[in-house]
Amino acid sequence: MRTELLTRSTALRRVRRGGFVALGGLVVWILLGLPFFVFPHVDPVPAHADVVLVLGPPMPQRVAVAERLLAEHRVDMALVSVPGPTAQWDVGALCRRSDVICFAPDPSTTRGEARELRAEAAKHGWTSAVVTTMPAHISRARTLVERCFSGTLSMVADAEPPYGTIAYQYLYQTAATVKAWLLQGC
Fold first, then answer.
1. Side by side, which strands form the sheet with 49-54?
2. For the chain (length 186 residues), average pLDDT per consecutive 10?
3. Rounded Cα distance, 27 and 17, in Å
4. CATH of domain 49-182
5. Which 3 state secondary structure label does DSSP give 75?
6. Where are the domains of the chain?
7. CA–CA separation, 45 vs 38, rounded Å?
8. Beta pairing partners, 97
9. How far apart (Å, rounded) are the C-alpha atoms in residues 68 and 38?
10. Rg value, the chain, Cα
């Protein structure tokens, strides 16, 4: 009986200790993620840039940033990532404009979008770009776009709330950031 109580007591202590370690790890992960996923470094919009890249999907808040910059003549062109049919994202009219290039990224990732910016920049002689996406994506997108685009880059967050919840964004963006670290290059 005494041995059984000691075994239960030991098991309970181990479970409790494991719980505290897991909770501590979670708190550290949340604190480390704050500057990347919640309060990322956002650049000011420059007085002028060659292009604004709207990272996909073309959410209304991101498209609004591009349309505003075009209307204010702060950019000459917009490069809009449209994964899937344009009708799915309600950007048909936008994609018909002469100052907008819509494209389907290949691969359909931020890396594919950065590669498209590189290709279009080479074609058009662009040396400066504004990139817009949601705040939780800014830090990782900056890393990926900088690997492909050697010009002046300004990362601008839109007013879009995170998909789902911030907990989902922590999980998704952490996994995607690890992937970005492992897959070097453009």
1. 100-103, 75-81, 49-54, 128-133, 152-157
2. 63 76 72 77 94 95 96 98 80 94 95 98 98 94 97 92 74 88 91
3. 15
4. 3.40.50
5. strand
6. 1-39, 49-182
7. 19
8. none
9. 24
10. 22
